[in-house]
Amino acid sequence: MCLYMICLYTVLTLHTVIYVNSTEYNEKRKTLSPYQCTSVRHLHDSRVDLNCSIPDNTQWNFTVVQSWAEKHMVKQMQVYIKCGINGTVILRQPVKARGLFALYINSCKIGNFYKYDLSSKLELVPFTLKTMEVIDSIHVITCRELDILYTNLSDKVNSKYPCYIPPSLERYVERNVSVLVIRVKCHTNKNVRIRHYENIPIWNYKHLTYYEKSCSTKNKFKFTSKFLQKGSFPSLRILNFSRLHLDRIPEKLVKGNYSKDFPDLRLVDLSHNSLSNIYFGSFHGTREHFSINMSHNQIRVINSTVLTTLKSMYPGVIMLYDNPFSCRCDQYHFLQFLKYSSDPVVTQYHSLKTESCRTPLKYKGRLLGDIPLDRKCHPSDSYGNTNAVIIIPVASVICCISAIFICLFYRRWIVSFRYKRLQQKQKKSKSIRCDKIKYDAFISYSCKDESLVKIMCGRLEGPPYLLSLCLHNRHFEPGVPITDNIFEAVKTSRRTVVVLSEHFLASQWCLMEFRAANCKGLVDNKRHLVVILLDDLNKCLTPLPPDIELFLQTHTYLRATEYMFWEKLVSFLRNDVSNKDMGHSYNNSPEI
Residue 204 in contact with residue 232, Cβ under 8 Å? Predict the structure, then answer.
């Protein structure tokens, strides 16, 4: 009996100790997160995710994270910072914190970025940051901050931290980021500023594989030129300078030797700029999958010099679609090259035959491949008709004035008429769409990934999303050819979601589903297809089919484990956005 009582007492004591320790542990976990942040610990790999939400009109200092990481001896940490209206993050260079390997900043004002922290304490912290993304944000800089940098701190900064970005970075994204300079008490003259930039040494960004600076409201030619000039990029694979209002190509891309300056480069994105010429450096030794995207620019003529550039770049390619091509006589050599050349280079540019001419007027709207080459060239073909140059603007002005008077006189009748017509069109287009579209999305996946897909579909089809999904195991009709089922599923679905994995790449039917969906997006000029990358797929080790690799390089994709995955996926499935309205996102980032 005594032995039984002793055992019972021991068990109760241990249970109490365990309960107390568990309570203490939970209390400690509540105090783990820094101010304005919540933390998620991944026990299997000792990783910490910090999600920091900065309220409206609030200023928050990144030193909170630095101190917290040092106090808790964090080994691996990624930080997500999202700001409300007028939320400000004080982030001083160098961007460091113990164990910090990823930093994402969204919709914030960033202050004191050029007010360097040169303390010996921070200097002892090593650079560990691998990924940094700043999106839809504003750098707020004061003249006082720049004065101190260019005068008192110039030598120290250039010797300790010469990099524009942390030297450990592998991926850097700066999208739709502007600069607001508060010009109060500015004293530094231009020569001091120039001397500071000249003293910056050339830095080897040996880890950087992806660099993006895109979507600016101002011309960023000076910045892009200086960044490339002051850097060495042995590992860079993708360089994205899209939507920067560039009217010239940065000098290092024009005069540089690509095999020497950018030995591992695969894609240069210069799309959606104002470039009118194609001038590049030496392309000798370029790789098969190397490409330069110059679509949506102002390129009108591809002369014999540019043709030589295109040929020297082979087997690489310059993408030139959606440019305002001229079909005058100075385009003769390129049109002849497209039609009759037997050079293997021409296979890279067959799609340009379907591009439309913008000038001269008599060929406007005709396809490049349909322009006759046996015509005689007249001065008017190359330089335009002088009378037309005078008459057309005058006639346009007269027509505009007349139209204004007519609109003012008949404005009520016109508004009423257009409103009724618009209502009729909307009803008609809605009925047509509803007849064709049965599902919100067609899910394309390998049967070997079915367990993961079931979880995903269960969440999308359940509340609160309640989406209608098409799956091959539920909706493919028996007895019908597989190809017909595939095309019908893609045709009757508003979107197609590809779950990309090793198993997917091994299936020919899965690849056919990808190609059918990709083709539909191109034909309809809609953002129809999105790719979800599973963690078991290593893009560096797994050889991808050329069309899938090109799609991943030039389109946004999602990772199943990334931050706000469900919100991004559902937003994509519900929104109806055309390709023309879609920003070019290299996601190869978290980005839909």
Answer: yes
Please, are residues 151 and 191 in contact by the beta-carbon 8 Å criterion?
Answer: no
Task: Give Rg (Cα) of the chain.
Answer: 29
What's residue 110's pLDDT? 95
User: Which phi and psi angles does 80 have, rounded to 5°?
Assistant: -110, 120
d(CA 414, CA 429): 22
CA distance 14 to 11: 5
The whole-number pLDDT of residue 165 equals: 84
Beta bridge partners of 188: none
Q: In sequence order, what are the beta bridge partners of 142?
A: 182
CATH code for the domain of 561:
3.40.50.10140
| End-to-end CA, the chain | 69
Contact 311, 335 (CB under 8 A): no
Asked if 91 and 111 count as a contact pair (C-beta separation under 8 A), the reply is: yes
Supply the pLDDT for residue 229.
86
Please report whether residue 81 resides in a domain: yes
pLDDT score recorded for residue 26 = 39
Q: Looking at this protein, which amino acid is placed at residue 424?
A: Q
Q: Is residue 137 part of a domain?
A: yes
Instruction: Give the chain's count of helices (H) and strands (E).
Output: 21, 21
- Residue 390 burial (C-beta neighbours within 10 Å; 0-12, 13-18, 19+): exposed
In Å, how far from its chain's centre is CA 63? 29
Please report the sign of the dihedral spanned by the C-alpha atoms of residue 407, residue 412, residue 413, residue 414: positive
**Do residues 518 and 486 touch, judged by C-beta distance below 8 A?**
no
Show which of 185, 211, 235 is a domain's final residue: 185
190-198 and 143-150 helices, crossing angle to 10°: 50
Question: Which of 237, 233, 297 is closest to 268 using CA atoms?
Answer: 237
pLDDT of residue 91: 94
Each residue of 297-331: b (16+ CB within 10 Å) or e?
Answer: bebbbbeeebbeebeebbebbbbbebbebbbbbbb
Longest dimension (CA), the chain: 119
**390: phi > 0 → left, psi -120 to 50 → alpha, else beta; which?**
alpha
What is the count of structural domains for the chain? 2
Domain residue limits at 514: 439-574
| pLDDT lower than 50: segments of the chain | 1-4, 6-31, 378-389, 429-434, 577-592
DSSP 14-39: HHHHHHHHHHHHHHHHHTTSPTTEEE
What is the spatial distance between Cα 268 and Cα 237, in angstroms, rounded to a whole number?
Answer: 9
Q: Is residue 530 part of a domain?
A: yes
Which of 185, 212, 229 delimits the end of a domain? 185
Asked whether 512 and 483 are in contact (CB, 8 A), the reply is yes
Q: How far out from the chain centre does Cα 505 lie?
A: 24
Neighbours of 332 (CB within 10 A): 17
- Output the pTM of the full model: 0.58
Regarding beta strands 231-232 and 210-214, do their DSSP bridges make them parallel or antiparallel, or are they unpaired?
Answer: unpaired
The packing angle between helices 565-574 and 450-461, to 10°, is 70
162 belongs to a structural domain: yes
C-beta separation of 534 from 501 below 8 A? yes
Placement of tokens 């706000």 in the chain: 564
Q: Measured between alpha carbons, how far is 346 from 353 in angstroms, rounded to an integer? A: 11
Beta bridge partners, 76, equal 47
**What is the rounded distance in angstroms from the CA atom of residue 320 to the CA atom of residue 322?**
7
Cβ pair 323, 355 in contact under 8 A? yes
From 434, 458, 408, select the one nearest 566 (Cα to Cα): 458
